[in-house]
Amino acid sequence: LSRSIKKLVTIHGFKENYPSVKHVDAVIAVSRDIQTQLQKQAVTSTCIENGIDLFSGDSGILRAELIANYDLTPDWPILICIGRLAKVKAYSNVMKACQTLPVNLIIVGDGPEKKALKEYESEHIKLIGHQHNARRFLYGADALVINSTREGL
After folding, report:
1. 97-104: long-range contacts, CB 8 A cutoff, minimum separation 24
2. Which one of 16, 103, 111, 138 is most buried, by most CB atoms within 10 A?
3. In terms of pTM, does the model score above 0.85?
4. Is 25 a residue whose pLDDT tops 90?
């Protein structure tokens, strides 16, 4: 059975040697630079840059809109978390940390932890639920926070 399962690896960073890729069926490099590095080591790869379309900002939500729509403190930075409301994302840690900081926090997403996370909401910490095309929110934010206890990105 294991011989019929194809093995694929995605390379995201530079290393002097990639010994584990010799035992896989295909290698994906996430940039031309990484693909060139792999070629120097005689590793054949396919380059797939930016797994999602780059955001041009044409349909993004402006900072002023985020402040107005979610009643945020205008002079504070806006942090965004986007993802499923699940324990592995550790949003409660981010929300607790932001309670005493001069920052606005918007969490975009829905999931099984929604009810538990509600207790950490405040005037500057907002759970806004699932949003279509959530990356629009990145345009008006100062930072994206990824706080997962493990992440498969």
Report:
1. 98/124, 98/125, 99/125, 102/73, 102/76, 103/76, 103/77, 103/78, 103/79, 104/66, 104/67, 104/70, 104/72, 104/73, 104/76, 104/77, 104/78, 104/79
2. 103
3. no
4. no
